[in-house]
Specification:
Strand content: 15-25%
Radius of gyration: 24 Å
CATH topology of the largest domain: Vanillyl-alcohol Oxidase, Chain A, domain 3
Largest sheet: 8 strands, antiparallel
Distance between the termini: 31 Å
CATH superfamily of the largest domain: FAD-linked oxidases, C-terminal domain
CATH class of the largest domain: Alpha Beta
Number of helices: 17
């Protein structure tokens, strides 16, 4: 957890220059700079961090997006792309010396192709709107984040969003085929293909989840799936968190792949039940929702086996949805967990981390202990099937010191995720919220590769700067990297084949034909994410990298 950089005062002369340049091709109403006009853009869904942007641009066409980027690149003006503003990690936090590029007007579904089961959509199209448009064709778009009624597909791509059905159907990256992307220089590139695969490196996966740091998405081709014939949910209540955690692992161990598998602790179910009356028991320690979909015969068999596992795992009650309205009501409660937290607390802070499923019970018990330590309540919501947890820390921002305790609480949860073999994010991204914890998860060599990738797309560092990937200097200041006699000590194994790797002054240089990073995290554990070998053509790659006199 970390506060963003200090508030940047707007340079009025610079502002006038940028506004004048943009208004040569955009109408006055599409270039905002007055305080009352840009104030609504000061934050995304992470409202604790705010910064009023210098200028807000509201293009309507791809050509205008490209021209905005060209003008900003020519003037070395930073650009932050923004969709619906529902992100929860500060990824769309604007800059006081930059342009906030809003894609809110890109709301057109360009093409719906029933034969290929695909849809071409602009980035401002709402997630749920895709399924609504595809429904008459018997199709739908699988990723369904809780904010799907409001969040945009462009933001989903930026954060690689998931949802309650991601266990069976995957995240955004598994449900898109192609992107049109504007580079910082204002060029359009197509990444991916209409076919099942595209030649070369998997840049589609690289761009998905890159948090607006590599390019600005102007169009997305998504996969559509046939609507399942039938679906049912088992709701199981447990009097012990550990039993509920074991039940999750046991269901997965049977070979069943639930369409959705969610968990809420007592604090969450009480908040939700008072908010939407979903039918949850509020006198139990945890509630599990486990859904099966497919043919009626497949669903009947799965539901029977799921109930058996839940009861053997210690469920005090199991209930199967009797019809479609009841199934939707069960899920409505889970999807309302975040706003329900807002109904019982003046403020709440939504965390996002991922842990091994077998450690669910242990992690919940330790979060309960942290509540005592920090004097704050926490309601826990999990994508139980894949171990993605969303603790909701409840606090009152008007209470002196409350937010600082909340940040510390959140940071300890993230580092607990690392301790048990998990990672610091699942679907919300890093943004500004978790940038310090990136120093805990990744070694300096790994971060160097991240910076090299960033440089390959954005040499000037103008796209969403200061987000997601920390500089090594920041990690040193955070106390997660050791510097001795002006040299940083790399903690990961580092292998170079056929090339020289050199970091000196403020430049990161790769010379040769092959560059390979293999290693473990700088806290002595295997990396959670395996990185592929990166092969570069013979030549030199330079990137800004704030470190000193380091050579391997």
């Amino acid at each position: 957890m970390t506060a963003p950089a200090e508030q940047i005062a707007v340079d009025l002369e610079r502002q006038r220059e940028v506004v004048s340049a943009l208004r040569t091709f955009l109408p006055e109403s599409a270039v905002l700079f007055a305080q009352e006009d840009v104030k609504p853009y000061e934050c995304d869904g992470l409202t604790a961090y705010r910064q009023v942007p210098m200028v807000v641009a509201l293009p309507e066409t791809e050509e205008q997006v490209c021209r905005i980027l060209k003008e900003c690149h020519a003037r070395k003006v930073p650009v932050v792309a923004r969709g619906a503003g529902t992100g929860l990690s500060g990824g769309a936090l604007p800059l006081g010396n930059g342009v906030l590029l809003s894609l809110a007007k890109f709301m057109r579904i360009v093409q719906m192709d029933v034969r290929s089961r695909t849809a071409r959509v602009q980035p401002g199209v709402r997630n749920l709107a895709i399924s609504d448009a595809a429904s008459p064709l018997g199709l739908y778009y699988a990723p369904d984040p809780s904010s799907q009624i409001a969040c945009s597909i462009g933001g989903n791509v930026a954060e690689n969003s998931g949802g309650i059905h991601c266990l069976k159907y995957g995240l955004t990256v598994h449900n898109i085929l192609k992107l049109r992307v504007a580079t910082i220089e204002g060029d359009i590139v197509e990444i991916g293909a209409d076919a099942l695969d595209a030649p070369g490196y998997d840049l589609l996966a690289l761009m998905t989840g890159s948090e607006g740091m590599l390019g600005v998405v102007t169009e997305v081709t998504v996969r559509l799936l046939p609507k399942p014939e039938y679906a049912q949910v088992v709701m199981a209540s447990f009097d012990d968190l550990a039993k509920a955690g074991e039940a999750v692992a046991s269901v997965i161990a049977t070979g069943i792949v639930p369409a959705g598998f969610e968990m809420m602790d007592q604090a969450a179910t009480r908040a939700v039940e008072g908010f939407v009356q979903a039918g949850y028991r509020t006198d139990v320690a945890a509630v599990l929702l486990c859904e099966s979909d497919g043919t009626r015969e497949e669903v009947a068999d799965d539901i029977r086996r799921i109930q058996e596992v839940m009861e053997k795992s210690g469920a005090v009650q199991t209930q199967v949805s009797r019809d479609e309205p009841e199934r939707l009501r069960f899920w409505a409660g889970r999807k309302a967990a975040f706003p329900a937290a807002g109904a019982i607390s003046p403020d709440y802070y939504c965390m996002d981390g991922t842990i091994p499923k077998k450690r669910l019970g242990e992690v919940l018990r330790r979060i309960t202990a942290m509540e005592e330590k920090y004097g704050l309540r926490c309601a826990n919501v999990f994508h139980a099937g894949d171990g993605n947890l969303h603790p909701l820390i409840l606090y009152d921002a008007n209470e002196p010191g409350a937010f600082a305790r909340t940040e510390a609480f959140g940071a300890e949860i993230l580092e607990l995720c690392l301790e048990v073999g998990g990672t610091i994010t699942g679907e919300h991204g890093v943004g500004v919220e978790k940038i310090n914890q990136m120093c805990a998860q990744f070694s300096s060599a790994e971060l160097a590769v991240f910076h090299a990738v960033k440089w390959a797309f954005d040499q000037e560092g103008l796209l969403n700067p200061g987000k997601a990937v920390p500089t090594l200097r920041r990690c040193v200041e955070y106390g997660r990297m050791h510097v001795h006699a002006g040299q940083e000590k790399f903690r990961s194994r580092f292998k170079v084949q056929g090339s020289r790797f050199k970091v000196q002054g403020s430049r990161f240089k790769v010379q040769g034909s092959r560059f390979k990073v293999q290693g473990s995290s700088n806290i002595g554990r295997p990396m959670n994410t395996k990185f592929p070998t990166l092969n570069f053509e013979p030549g030199t790659l330079n990137t800004e990298h704030r470190t000193r006199n380091i050579e391997h």
